[in-house]
Amino acid sequence: MSSMLILFFAEILLCCAHSAGDSVPKLLLVSFDGFRADYLETYKLPHLQEFIENGVLVKEVRNTFITKTFPNHYTIVTGLYEESHGIVANDMYDADAKKNFSQFNDSDPFWWNDAVPIWVTNQQQGKGASAAAMWPGSDVKINNTTPHFFMKYNFSVKFEERVERIVEWLNSSDPVVNFAVLYWEEPDASGHKYGPRDTQNMQRVLEEVDKHVGFLMNKLKASGLWDTVNVIITSDHGMASCSAEKLIVLDECLGRNNYTLIDRTPVAAVLPRQNKEDVYNLLKNCNSHMKVYLKEEIPDRFHYRHHKRIQPIILVADEGWTIVQNESLSKLGDHGYDNALPSMHPFLAARGPAFRRGYSHGSLANVDIYPMMCHVLGLAPRPHNGTFANAKCLLADQWCISVPEAIGIVIGVFMVLSTFTCIIIISKNRVAPSRPFARLQLQSDDDDPLIG
Ligand SMILES: *[C@@H]1O[C@H](CO)[C@@H](O)[C@H](O)[C@H]1NC(C)=O
Ligand SMILES: *[C@@H]1O[C@H](CO)[C@@H](O)[C@H](O)[C@H]1NC(C)=O
Ligand SMILES: *[C@@H]1O[C@H](CO)[C@@H](O)[C@H](O)[C@H]1NC(C)=O
Ligand SMILES: *[C@@H]1O[C@H](CO)[C@@H](O)[C@H](O)[C@H]1NC(C)=O
Ligand SMILES: *[C@@H]1O[C@H](CO)[C@@H](O)[C@H](O)[C@H]1NC(C)=O
Ligand SMILES: *[C@@H]1O[C@H](CO)[C@@H](O)[C@H](O)[C@H]1NC(C)=O
Ligand SMILES: *[C@@H]1O[C@H](CO)[C@@H](O)[C@H](O)[C@H]1NC(C)=O
Ligand SMILES: *[C@@H]1O[C@H](CO)[C@@H](O)[C@H](O)[C@H]1NC(C)=O
Ligand SMILES: [Zn+2]
């Protein structure tokens, strides 16, 4: 028995030593911008399905407010709410520094330095080098560091070229690249253009995205990385349909000289130029299809208040509504709305040695992705707003009992215990009347010839 135990532990030790010495765990994080969670059910996506079948699927990812591209991509790689990582919109104004940020002018480290993304931490903790193909912020010197390999953002660079570079870098032995990020602009761009209800056009676009997934899988297979690399495929937000009938026209409510519009729609960031209360009251009575908040009264659940780049007044349009000054509708789909709306949620799929196989999970917050990635890479996470335990069920090396399972087990144990108790009570009750007989038996025992 003890020798078997020793053998067992020796095996565990050997196994651990083997996997530690074998190679460092590798992780590739991929984002297809604007991939709404339910596209997975609406469209036939064979490559993505194949990917999911051998890994895990999170059907809905609860993203952060505002549900825009730059803020959510930075949340995924930092685990922080937007008020804590400082990328609070795609268009920002910093009143202290008197600087503007936009997606076309994003490379001043000033905007990014409130947080440290995982590709920097990975290099700082010495686990290996990081590589990046156009993930927002990945070409900026954040905390004085860029990924060892990266591409300057250029939307004209094809998906295939981005993948070829990433796979080449992941295959590099000097330095060893253990973490990489890859970004692609679709299906977001087409979602804006056609609107998510245009299933004919969206089908074509999503088939293309699915081919891209197939291309990525084939490249990883051809380079021999497929069996060892962990791959996460996710997105930053979903998409809602917009229409010309759902316009909120600010010019009808107040003069433009009253305020500066820092960010436009569907969450408008308003910097008052006149008395704040006056501007607020004019906006408050403007349109019933948007909420108007003073910065101090932004709901707690948004985690969107404590940053100087959040403007004094924000307007949040209802799903499908567009805020304009006097322009006409320019896009049939948009995102940025309340992060409680299912239409704003993306999905997540992951496969590789670190992940379970054939497991499907209801939902996860995107702040939880960061601690999960740190675990896979063996990194000590920086302070963040996620919860590692929420992601345990996705991981091959973690115990995972879901709430219904836990309740089932508790009820099961309770039932077994109460059955036993009942049996004991019943049998005791049965024994009671036959006591004289029992005593008699005892007495007959006393009469045992051995004792006698
Ligand atoms: C980009 O923003 C910076 C401030 O952050 C500003 O100094 C610079 O002029 C801007 N560049 C362009 C091309 O707008
Ligand atoms: C920043 O943007 C605002 C609003 O678009 C504009 O009024 C201001 O001149 C810009 N400031 C700088 C420094 O570019
Ligand atoms: C940047 O990295 C250094 C260590 O290299 C660290 O001491 C510093 O706190 C980091 N900056 C931020 C903003 O976390
Ligand atoms: C962006 O990429 C395209 C296609 O590869 C290339 O022709 C163009 O020169 C690039 N632009 C910049 C600014 O590098
Ligand atoms: C990967 O690297 C090895 C050597 O380290 C090389 O033989 C192989 O061709 C590379 N594969 C690709 C796809 O670059
Ligand atoms: C502010 O808006 C109100 C309502 O449209 C208008 O009467 C007022 O003149 C505006 N103030 C300025 C300074 O533009
Ligand atoms: C919108 O407002 C601007 C500035 O007040 C004006 O020049 C323009 O003609 C208006 N456009 C429309 C479509 O009303
Ligand atoms: C999010 O995490 C940061 C860093 O630890 C912390 O400062 C902040 O208070 C957290 N936010 C919430 C809502 O817990
Ligand atoms: Zn996006």
From TrEMBL:
InterPro entries given in the database record: Alkaline_phosphatase_core_sf (IPR017850), Phosphodiest/P_Trfase (IPR002591)
Q: Which GO terms describe its molecular function?
A: bis(5'-adenosyl)-triphosphatase activity; metal ion binding
What residue ranges are annotated as transmembrane? 406-426
Q: Does the keyword Membrane apply?
A: yes
Q: How does it sit in the membrane?
A: Single-pass type I membrane protein
- Gene3D superfamilies xref list: 3.30.1360.180, Alkaline Phosphatase, subunit A
GO CC terms: plasma membrane
Q: What does this protein do?
A: Hydrolyzes extracellular Ap3A into AMP and ADP, and Ap4A into AMP and ATP. Ap3A and Ap4A are diadenosine polyphosphates thought to induce proliferation of vascular smooth muscle cells. Acts as a procoagulant, mediating platelet aggregation at the site of nascent thrombus via release of ADP from Ap3A and activation of ADP receptors.
- State the family named in the UniProt similarity comment for this chain: Belongs to the nucleotide pyrophosphatase/phosphodiesterase family.
Name of this chain's protein: bis(5'-adenosyl)-triphosphatase
Q: Which organism is it from?
A: Serinus canaria (Island canary)
